Amino acid sequence: MADPHIQCELDGLDKLTVLLYRCALTFSAIIMSIVAWEPTFAIPALVIAALIASSTVHIYDKRFRWLIQGSGLFAAVWLISGLWQPLALGAALFAFSALAIKEYFCFQLKILMLTPVALAGFWFCLVFGQEHISIAFSMSGSILLAVTAFSKWRMPLHYDIGDKMRYQV
């Protein structure tokens, strides 16, 4: 997570990664609103969005960055393997949950702490065949991800980067 008080020079790659991250969050909110009805399209779309968001997030601490990136990468690899799609979806939802927690520390919006509950609730209901309940969880997850995305779009781009010297490799 970056420091909004530090404004460093952004190059083209910095701007691209910030825009990709914000677009992936926005796209995930939209896709979460239809995943209960169109899982064939929505699950791969969420995995792709998770891979993009997790690979373009700017977090100083490498342990958390690698955890989030690892879950996005695992989701993509598992989806490609074609074994059990719900596991790929679960990894993607874990990535979005972790990103929502990260953004909670950025915005101090307590409601974002409910994102992991909504996304995990959706996943469990989907896996255990509770379609009607999964719709409620997917819609609440969609709203929470939309709040996160809306909050990100209101910020200048340099807020996402912060002090480039503080990033751990």
Automatic annotation (TrEMBL):
The chain crosses the membrane at residues 19-37, 43-60, 72-101, 107-128, 135-153. InterPro entries: DUF2301. Keywords: Membrane, Transmembrane, Transmembrane helix. The keyword Mitochondrion does not apply. This is Arabinose efflux permease. It comes from Photobacterium profundum 3TCK.
